[in-house]
Predict the 3D structure of the following.
Amino acid sequence: MKILSRRGFLKTGITGAAGVALSPAVLRASTQDNIIYRTLGKTGMKVPVISFGVMRSDNQSLCKAAYDKGIRLFDTANGYQNGNNETMLGNLFKEYPRNSFYLATKVKAAGVDREGKPSSETTAEDFLSKFNTSLSRLQMDYVDILYVHDISNPEYLEYKPILNAVKKLKKDGKVKFIGFSTHRNEASVIDAASSMEDWDVILTSYNFQQAYRKELDAAVKKASAAGIGIVAMKTLAGGGFLDKEKTRPINTTAAIKWVLSNPDIHTTIPGMTAFDQLDLNVKLLTDITLTEQERKDILIAGAQPGLFCSGCRECIPACPAKLPVPDLMRAYMYAYGYSDTSQAYSLLSELGTGSDPCKNCTGGCSVKCSRNFNVREKINDISRLVNVPADFLA
Amino acid sequence: MKSKILTFLLISVFPALTTAQDIVFPALSGFRIKTSYPVYTPDNLWDFINGAADTYLSYGFVDLHVAEYKKLKDVIKLELYRHSDNINAFGVYSSERSPSFTFRELGSQGYVADGAINFFKGNYYVKIKTYSKKAKTLQAAELLASRVEAMLEGGNGMPAMLSKFPGEGRKLNEETYINENVLGHSFLSNAFKALYEVGPDNFSIFIIQCSSPEAGTKTVNTYVASTGIDPVSSGEGKYVLSDGYNGTIFLAGKDDRIVIISGLAKDQADLADKYASEILE
């Protein structure tokens, strides 16, 4: 580019192709026709099948555009961007009539252990304090849905301090409906919740790559039949690509349509940070029918393993040698994903599994990886690294 | 000989060798260290921080080491997030920062808020949290922060680009780094952003350092063309655009650097020019 002069900005005076930004009052009227709505269970909330997972967006204009195009449910959380996410939404929506949109947020209780069980640190006081902070950031008198963030153990569903806290918030009118989010052990948690009368909405991982399809679908069906609203998240199975280098994209439209082909899924909350992502997803507001090509794309994508271990740990009991398979896969990731052989070597040294951990399994590998990895091949591949002198890796 | 051949073959498979710091959690007198958490990777970070993981992943997250320091009922939790580079570590740190926090000289920068001590240094974003209100435990958390800061590799400076933002009207501790989809546009990436308040005017300035002057020109032209007009070959490199989603945009470029200003009105070109020129000249 040439060096600038002091003439200042060239005034184009020409409206861009997308038009001049209009005021919210005018735009509220301009929703799309033929939007597909589903009712969120017994809540009675009619929501478009596409909602907005705002957890990454720091751009008010994107949320505004989503609203203008007909999206009505916006999902955030107390912990997203350390509160900046809720603050952004609060600053945006204070300009809108409160009954023109739905706002869902989540609060994560303290002290829940790795098994998903509450502890003595999991108090109503802490939970309510965080919720009040959320309400203040959002600049609202109430939220439409409050999720207890991340329930992965059915025991937690009946944990009185938190359950009573959210029920009181509902009774006090600060929350219209209560729910929980889950992305581990979903089938058993959802199944257990279906037998309770307390939960109005469930936000669950749901995508074409999940290995436990049958159990999850059965649980979702049961919950939906019990009148619980079901919202799907992680619908792209990890960001839209099958590989870390982002050279193997998935058909995101097909992935979301696949989710919505289940009538028990009432809406989805894809995360969006760009207008072209929004435009792609907005088309789904009026058309969620899978084409033949899209069906094939999903079948193919579903059969592809991603690059790295998902940490499901199903391999551990299946390995006769009791190898620390997830950790070996992590070493593989350091080496092949980040070209960090030093880190991989360090981990392999720590694991002490040697250069040929699978040598005693002469009849083939009994581990069936939920991501269809050839586990033995990857272990053999990475384990050779222990033969490389450490000096070559530093 | 066989070993040398194997070494050569293995090294040739991994062309870009990097080193990584081994994590050894520092001791804290009176506290027992519990490290029962796995090392989290991009594939299972969701298990630890749920949907917040997407933000970290977008900033080149590599791995996370977690430890708990326990003394009777008091717990201090330490989370060491490693990112691909210092700018991405700043990116995730700044996305969670608020000007209302109490800032400390920790690493490149840190803050204390509601029992949390967060800072970034080198490629690391460090988060320390305790729910205890006891003064001694809070002091222990601060001591832990200083010990972690001392053990981490990397420099203590803020990203150099931040110094290019003019000082007048700049809102401190609100600068951020956005590595993709800047202003919601997929063709804009790797921007530092600062917020300004000048009299009654509130606006944002974005600085993008492109890889080359050609890349800079291409990005400017793409943005101009996205508003439905042809890039004008005025040689001036400055435009006022009507971005259908973001309103009035002042766009200026010189060599490999681009400045974008949003939040001002069309008749405030002089104000925009003042700031753009200071950054670009």
